[in-house]
């Protein structure tokens, strides 16, 4: 049985996944916060991802790393830099030094959050991050690509939507993923042979999805759950989409948030009625002229506070 290091194991996604993976793998759980309810087949090692020495210790002797550690959601730059950039590099570099080839990256839909909700994008879409948090996830994907090509590591990048028991609002009808579907995707990342570098979307079988997840399906992903069964109740409560950036862009509120401060887009939302009418004419709301953004790849030249547990906030 393989031994898997799960960073950020005390966070929400880790908490959802542990029972789903129980009995399939030996789980070495790691976080700066303790995991007290250890189950058979689980061990815990405290570590701070901002310290390379910690990550060298916890990644020694494992068969793969599932990295959920870091800051989940927007924050100030220093926090993002420490947790999601330095912390990610430390975890990846420690795995490399310890000879761990297989590495699963919890990237995010926020790496491409500034695509509009009337667009369907796939794994080849050019990055359009919606926040500093989204920028850190673009960095994670880029560094994973480097380590795959330079060092021959096997990288599986999951652009996670929102892991929860059920979708909680209109936006999450598009990006929700159940715990068992998330576990299936992680299992593919751990077991798929001949893996080098892949990007997939972490979503269930959602009729309103903005993501063409054909790459995940190619690798064997067959989601079991659907958000549509919750749609009537959610749409009755939430009503139709409005004209704010949170309604226009896939990243939702991240497109307006700046780590506790208000962005230009948030200010535009609160502009005078006349200004809002003008903005509405220049930017019609999206619903739903589907445009594939596979051509965006042509634009390319080529192809979490420190140690905070992941999934503390909604993705």
Written description of the protein model:
This protein has 315 residues and is α/β, with parallel strands linked by helices. The chain has one domain (3-230): 3-Layer(aba) Sandwich (Rossmann fold), CATH 3.40.50.720. The chain is 34% helix and 17% strand. It is built from 11 helices and 13 strands. Strands 3-2-1-4-5-7-10 form a 7-stranded parallel beta sheet, with helices on both faces. The protein has a two-stranded parallel sheet with strand order 6-13. Strands 8-9 form a two-stranded parallel sheet. Helix 5 (172-175) links the parallel strand 8 and strand 9. Helix 1 packs across helix 6 (179-191), helix 2 packs across helix 3 (77-97) and helix 3 (77-97) runs parallel beside helix 4 (132-151).
Number of domains: 1
SSE series:
EHEEHEHEEHEEHEHEHHHEEHHE
Give the strand order, joined by hyphens, for the main sheet.
3-2-1-4-5-7-10
CATH first level: Alpha Beta
Poorly predicted sequence stretches spanning 5 or more consecutive residues: 259-263, 269-314
Largest sheet composition: 7 strands, parallel
Named at the architecture level, the CATH assignment is 3-Layer(aba) Sandwich
Kindly report the name of the CATH homologous superfamily: NAD(P)-binding Rossmann-like Domain
Evaluate the radius of gyration: 19 Å
Give the helix level as a range of percent: 25-40%
Shape: globular
Instruction: Give me the number of helical elements.
Output: 11
